[in-house]
Amino acid sequence: MTGSAKATVFIDNQRVIVTEYRFAPGENTGWHRHGHDYVVVPLMDGKVKLLTKDGESFAEMKKGAPYFRKEGVEHDVINANEGEYAFIEIELK
Q: What is the pTM of this model?
């Protein structure tokens, strides 16, 4: 990923990759394809803009409410809030 969000990898072993993403308003992850199933845990309430090959959409995120996605998702994730936004991503190898 080559976006402007700050990515901090906390764990990268044979079973999982755990990364925190922190975004200033308008910052993004960069276009990427998920090579593993993954879980995202929002660290605060907020909204992200998702750019996909089908267009753009918005997702409301709730602090501590995780969600799961299958391998193969392709998108760019953009902070659509007026302040900083952050989440933890857990990739399952």
A: 0.94
